[in-house]
Every structure is written in structure tokens, then in C-alpha cells.
Write a structure and sequence with these properties.
The chain is α+β, with helices and mostly antiparallel strands. It is built from nine helices and seven strands, in the order H-H-H-H-H-E-H-E-E-H-E-E-H-H-E-E. This is Signal transduction histidine kinase internal region domain-containing protein.
Length: about 350
């Protein structure tokens, strides 16, 4: 079923064409009426010239330009333009004889001055063709630009949706990993019937609240992320007791600074999971500083050995992918291992102008 808007557009287009050709007819009458008072002759001559002008114009704008010029078939376009010029020139010459024979009864002096030679009809016809062709090319260019822009917008929208789905998938992977580690710790306390179990459950409740209600946000305050880390560390302190030697150094934390939720906790988890007890101590040192519009985070844990599994664990590989999605080129991640320490350093840059809003 043809829509009302489609019909309305067709009617508007038809009216515009009618107005254009009426304007051309009046322009012809004015142009060919120069230095003559024989308006009937001028109008009849202009009216006879109109089919030639209309046919030539639509041949160029509706056939040659869209089928050959726009599609970059330049040789065929030039060839058919030559054919079109020859045919239209023939009819323009006929219009000259029409004016001479039928309108002035073979009296050359009876012709309007502007029609006594085919030159001026040639100029008039091809000027109109030129104007119409320029308008047609402008219209094609506008349509092409609009289509290209719409296509770019669709591609961008598809890419954003894909990134959003990938990011959500990565978050889903991080959550079970985090819960698995925390529940294992709680299970150990329950087996020991430790008095710290209720406090541990409370800490876990705080972590789950953050996990369920904050992690779906695109950004959270840095202080919230730090509180989350501190709750997690408190749980691990209960688990490791005197074996754990940990230091936390948080400096110059700005209230307005925001980060992606659950961004730093996988590094903390890996320090406890892959850290090794040396001289009866699991040593972990963590620092976080805000410098201008950057966050400098580092964490290191004691370790004798270093394997690719440590470097590319589930949680760490996911956070690397998240960093590439959320912060793109605005981050630096360095992972290193020396004789006694496994170290991760992360710098988040340009926090005032994040590269992604997920």
C-alpha cells in the first residue's frame, strides 16, 4: 500500500518541476523578446523550443548523470553526451526554421532579433540544461552524503552495541570469579567455626551490594571502588590471619574522580590467589594516587615463580579486555616479575574525557 507521505512527496516534486518549466518558459519569452514587440511570435517560438529543452534536460539528469556519470562510466557518459548534443542541435535548428517559415512567413526581418540565428537558442537551451544538471548533481551528492552518514551511524551503533555486549559478558565472567574466591574463604571460616564468621558475612554482604547494584553503572566514584577493595582485603585478613603482611597506601583521592566499577579488584584478587608465602609471610603492597587527571595504581605480591598462567588468569585477562574497551588508549598496564615480587602497575589517563561511556 502506497503511503500518504510517499504520495505527498511525489505531488510536491511534480509541482516543483512544473514551476521550474513555467519559469523557463517565461525566461525564454523575456530573453527572445529582446528588441521586439511581437509577443505572439516570441511566445510561440519559446513554446516550440520547450520540448527540445525538456527532452534534453531530462535525458541528461535522469539518464546520463545517474547511469553513467555517478557510476564513473566516463567514456560512455561523454559518448552519449555527444549523441545528445547532435540530436538536440538538430531540433534547435528546426526551431530556427519554424520561426522563419511558420512564424514570420519566410521574412527574415519579421523574426525576433534573438531568433535570427540558431546561436541564441543554443545558448538558451544548454544554459537551462547546465542549470538543471548542476541541481541534479547537487541532489545526488546530498543523497549520497545522507546515505553514507546514515550507514556510518548504523555501523557505529552496531559497534557500540557489540562493545556493550562484550563488556557485559566480561563483567559476567568477573562476578563468578570473585564470588568463587570469596565463598571459598567464607567456607573455610565456617569449617573452623570462627567467631569472625558473622563479621565476614557482613563484609561479604557489603561486597555483594556493590557487585549487584553498582557494577552495572558505567562509572562509580573512585572512593566507592576503594571501599570495595578495603572490604575485600578485610575478608582476606581474616582468612590469612598472621600470615598476611599487607600495606595499603591511598593518597590524594578526589571525590569527583570516577572509574569503571570492579576495575581494580581483579588485580587485588590475583595478588592473594597467586601470591606465595615466603618466610611464613604473604606480602602484598598496594598504592593508589590521583595525579592531576590520572590514576596511578600499583600492587605487588611476594612470589618465587612466575608462569604465563599467573599473567593471563581468568580475572586478569578479562580486566585487560575491559581496559581496552573502556579506556582504549588512555591507559598503561605493566606486568613484571623480579626475583621476589610480582608487580602490576596501571595508569588511567584523561579521566575528565573518557573514551567510552560503557
Amino acid at each position: 500500500m502506497i503511503s500518504r507521505d510517499f504520495i505527498l512527496k511525489k505531488i510536491v516534486k511534480l509541482l516543483l518541476h512544473v514551476i521550474f518549466w513555467i519559469t523557463v518558459l517565461l525566461s525564454y519569452s523575456y530573453f527572445f523578446g529582446h528588441n521586439t514587440e511581437n509577443l505572439n511570435y516570441v511566445f510561440s517560438f519559446s513554446l516550440f523550443l520547450m520540448p527540445v529543452t525538456i527532452g534534453t534536460t531530462y535525458t541528461v539528469t535522469e539518464v546520463l548523470i545517474p547511469k553513467y556519470l555517478i557510476k564513473e562510466k566516463y567514456l560512455l557518459f561523454i559518448l552519449y553526451c555527444i549523441y545528445m548534443i547532435i540530436i538536440s542541435a538538430f531540433f534547435i535548428v528546426i526551431s530556427f526554421f519554424y520561426g522563419l517559415i511558420f512564424l514570420s512567413s519566410l521574412k527574415y526581418e519579421g523574426m525576433a532579433p534573438m531568433t535570427r540565428t540558431p546561436l541564441f537558442p543554443f545558448i538558451a537551451v544548454y544554459f537551462v540544461v547546465f542549470i538543471a544538471s548542476a541541481l541534479s548533481l547537487a541532489q545526488h551528492n546530498y543523497k549520497s552524503t545522507s546515505v553514507n552518514q546514515e550507514l556510518k551511524n548504523r555501523i557505529l551503533e552496531a559497534q557500540l552495541k557489540l562493545k556493550e555486549q562484550e563488556l557485559n559478558y566480561l563483567k559476567m565472567q568477573i562476578h563468578p570469579h570473585f564470588l568463587f574466591n570469596t565463598l571459598n574463604t567464607l567456607y573455610g571460616f565456617a569449617l573452623k567455626k570462627s567467631e569472625d564468621t558473622p563479621e565476614m558475612i557482613l563484609k561479604l554482604s557489603n561486597l555483594l551490594d556493590y557487585l549487584l547494584y553498582q557494577s552495572d553503572k558505567p562509572l562509580v566514584s573512585l572512593q566507592e571502588e576503594i571501599n570495595h577493595i578495603e572490604d575485600y582485603v578485610a575478608l582476606e585478613k581474616m582468612r590469612f590471619s598472621d600470615v598476611l603482611d599487607i600495606s595499603l597506601d591511598f593518597e590524594n583521592i578526589k571525590i569527583t574522580t570516577e572509574v569503571a566499577p570492579m576495575l581494580l579488584i581483579p588485580f587485588v584478587e590475583n595478588s592473594f590467589k597467586h601470591g606465595q608465602i615466603i618466610n611464613q609471610k604473604l606480602s602484598i603492597h598496594m598504592s593508589l594516587k590521583c595525579i592531576d587527571n590520572e590514576i596511578h595504581f600499583s600492587i605487588k605480591n611476594s612470589a618465587h615463580t612466575f608462569t604465563e598462567k599467573d599473567k593471563n588468569g581468568i580475572g586478569l585477562s578479562n580486566i585487560i579486555k575491559r581496559l581496552s574497551l573502556v579506556y582504549k588508549d588512555n591507559h598503561e598496564l605493566t606486568i613484571s616479575k623480579d626475583q621476589n615480587w610480582y608487580t602490576v602497575q596501571l595508569i588511567l589517563k584523561n579521566l575528565k574525557t573518557p573514551t567510552n561511556e560503557f
